[in-house]
Amino acid sequence: MFLTNDTPLHPSSFLLLGIPGMEKFHIWISFPFCAVYMIVLLGNFTILFVIQAESSLNQPMFYFLAMLATIDWGLSTATIPNMHGIFWFRLREIIFNACLTRMFLIHNFTLMESAVLLAMAYDRYVAICNPLQYSIILTNKVVSVIDLGVLVRSFTFVFPFIFLIIRLSFCGNHVIPHTCCERMGLARLACASIKVNIIYGLGAISILVFDITAMAISYVQILCTVFRLSSCEAWLKSLSTCGSHVCVILAFYTPALFSFMTHRFGQNVPHYIHILLANLYVIVPPMPNPFIYGVRTKQIYDCVKKILMQEKKESKRSSM
After folding, report:
1. pLDDT 10s digits, 23-82
2. CA–CA separation, 243 vs 292, rounded Å?
């Protein structure tokens, strides 16, 4: 069967370089990344276990938190093990379809996390601005619809990335100077115009901008409501319930902002700095979430303490 000129040429595999310019330090860089991955797995597993085990946590806020923990687990698993394959075992080659799959997972989980943070902001808005109607507005059915919307929205916007890459011909360099299959890193290897890829990518970024704007509006409304309260104790209690969520939002969007600013204005910044920032954007946000919610959310803190005390009592009984 003959190929026409319109048939895209795809390589059988790509070569991931890791962090170019820092090859000598790959093994040392891998240790903190490995520690972060262990923390993410253990911390988010603890959050999921506590929410599942404690019936008192069967509330919309904790359903969203469980979804956030699952997404963080998936995002870390889609990136960090592959990095260690490069750093430790020099497993740099990745087949074309596997590369597309990893690209899809990374961007899909990222967009899902942004949507869940928006849902959690809405949850806090209803809880503080309309507390008497909270159980009426955020029913289990509504929460299920929101969860489904998170999945559908991310899939709808990210899935076309695959076809935008498949349509391109790769007739030259097959080396990706990165630790993972990043969307634009793949597109720049093509020997065809990637204007459509760039425009669609900007459209996807606008979704994140929408999420940030909607969250900002929610918290403006929350602050307006809180400052109308007469009691200082009520102020502190209301602001405390939002503190954890604000910390998670900052942990998620701050590395992304630094990465974007570096790519946009840091033409003189070494390439390995760009790669490190891109990695931090994927690795950093999932790590602090369990600690932020575990320490700042009293219900989770009390439940973890309760479970640990029960295990301690059982171990004492068994030793007697």
Report:
1. 899 999 999 999 999 999 998 998 898 888 888 888 898 999 999 999 999 999 999 999
2. 9
Largest Cα separation within the chain, whole Å, is 79
Distance between CA atoms of residues 259 and 263, nearest Å: 6
Work out the number of other CB atoms within 10 angstroms of the CB of residue 242.
Answer: 22
Low-confidence ranges of the chain (pLDDT < 70): 1-7, 234, 263-266, 294-296, 311, 314-320
Q: Is 177 helix (H, G, I), strand (E, B) or coil?
A: coil
Contact indicator for 121, 211 with CB cutoff of 8 Å: no
15: which strand partners? 93, 175
Looking at residue 100, what is its pLDDT?
Answer: 96
Give buried/exposed letters for 103-121 (b at 16+ CB in 10 A, else e): bbbbbbbbbbbbbbbbbbb
| Predicted TM-score of the model (pTM) | 0.90
Q: CB under 8 Å to 256, separation ≥6 — which residues? A: 208, 281
- DSSP state at residue 3: P
Q: In the prediction, which pLDDT does 31 show?
A: 94
Gap between the Cα atoms of 100 and 84, Å rounded: 19
258, burial (CB in 10 Å: exposed 0-12, middle 13-18, buried 19+):
middle
- Give, as one character, the DSSP assignment of residue 13: E
Instruction: Measure Cα distances from 301 to 211, 287, 308 in Å.
Output: 29, 17, 11
Distance CA 102, CA 14 (A): 13
Strand-pair category, 13-16 with 175-176: parallel
pLDDT of residue 179: 92
Measured N-to-C along each axis, helices 60-89 and 26-53 cross at an angle, to the nearest 10 degrees, of 160
CA separation, residue 18 to residues 15, 26, 190, 248, 272 (Å): 9, 8, 20, 28, 9
